[in-house]
Amino acid sequence: MPYSLTYVFTTKPHSALSWCIRTVTKRKFSHVSMELHLPEFDRDMLFQATWPYVAVTNTKLFYAKETIVDTITIPISDDEMRTVMQIALDNTGKTYATMKLLGIAYRKLMGAFGYNVKNPAADGDKTEECAELGALVLIALRVPPSDDREAVDPGWVYDRAYELQKERLPRAKMGD
Predict the structure, then answer these.
(1) For residues 70 and 7, what is the distance between their CA atoms, to the nearest angstrom?
(2) CB 21 within 8 A of CB 154
(3) Which residues does residue 72 pair with via DSSP β-bridges, in sequence order?
(4) I need a surface site. Which of 34, 39, 65, 140 has the fewest CB within 10 A?
(5) Selection from 117, 158, 169, 167 nearest residue 135 by Cα
(6) DSSP, residue by residue, the chain
């Protein structure tokens, strides 16, 4: 059965946290969510790491309130769909990594001054932030992981999702 995974990149124009993420990453978006088309149910399911926890979200409600910057759709196999669903279900309810996110910003800021520091709020996989969740899915789709899990941001996810889309879709379907 043909499945698809769509990475949805969003921003909140009037949010200080969104502005900080966009400034630090030098991107137009500050958040990434993953949407799955479920043909068996004639529904789409969106999962995301957002405050206060990782959750499955109604797509109609999500699109009604979010500012979409870009989307990247990737065809996935039955086995990949099973794996992505497992990642979504295994992480649902996990606490959002607000402190880890601030630690990523701290690392990037210090890096701009030539310092290579560790994320002081790193906690492995106890909490999740949106880019980490997006990266977990990409790794399950056989995209090489980042050398530094604690430095992954929505831009890292965007770049790798875009490359994977280019590998899996003919150019005519990508709109190029």
Answers:
(1) 8
(2) yes
(3) 7
(4) 65
(5) 158
(6) --EEEEEEEEE-TT-HHHHHHHHHHTSS--EEEEEEEETTTTEEEEEEEETTEEEEEEHHHHHHHSEEEEEEEEEE-HHHHHHHHHHHHHHTTPBB-HHHHHHHHHHHHHHHTT-----TT--TTSSB-HHHHHHHHHHHTTPPPPS-GGG--HHHHHHHHHHHHHHHS-HHHHT-
Domains, the chain, ranges and CATH? 3-169 (3.90.1720.10)
pLDDT band at 167 (very low <50, low <70, confident <90, very high): very high
Question: Is residue 48 within 8 Å of residue 65, measured between CB atoms?
Answer: no
